[in-house]
């Protein structure tokens, strides 16, 4: 693999001059710079980013951590985050840092933070909240992204969207269609919801309309298609008079669509289903899923920008900085309609 020394020998200049040209530094004549770049292209030179990081004490990379690479939302977020990082001359390392039980593998944090990346974005509300802060490497810039309750993290910068508004929009849509028999599917573990703000926004909107949901109509299950399927099956079996399901995640809503189809319950004629997130699969379902778009591109760009701002000026970003980005909006598709009379 060609090195800076090989280019220096080819062009008859010093290694320091070659380095300055390829990094856009120092004062080098136009003629010399063109000769160096031409030699680099002829030799097939590629910069060694790891060696550069060791020499400079910094890496032109940031790392994105999550614990479920199979979740389509994380793929969308990653793509947008990569675009945002490149716009600011950085690369993105993607780490599916999960143990077999789904918890965060801190070995990734120790291996990547510092030596391979300038900072970390920790993504998702499915990580252990109580222990997360103690797991983050000391002295490494870190941003928490898409947390349902950012006030629970007073010592780390955080990026989020107004999830309460997202839940409210989903509920108001069903109310506008004149649904009264509504149930909610929400993601969580051991019966404890993780989509707290979405759930709170939906419940508040329903209560304002005079609908006070009983506990039996708020079902918590795994935040996945399978969880949505199981929760919808239980609800439709125990309460066949339900006319609409609000899922706090599109994966849950897709599982509910599957449960309805299996039971011969036509959507939306007999049952309306609305989700929250607007993953790419939502538009591909049949019927296409009505959902609330949570501005994934804005979330990803906001997370990258906050982290790079923190890296560039640690004193300029408060430790408890909170950026609420984007604005949730309803995406009307084919899975919702007025209840049949």
UniProtKB/TrEMBL annotation:
Entry keyword set: DNA-binding, Transcription, Transcription regulation
SMART domains reported for this sequence: HTH_LACI
GO molecular function per UniProt: DNA-binding transcription factor activity; transcription cis-regulatory region binding
Protein name: LacI family transcriptional regulator
InterPro entries for the chain: HTH_LacI (IPR000843), LacI/GalR-like_sensor (IPR046335), Lambda_DNA-bd_dom_sf (IPR010982), Peripla_BP_I (IPR028082)
Domain HTH lacI-type per the UniProt entry, residue ranges: 2-56
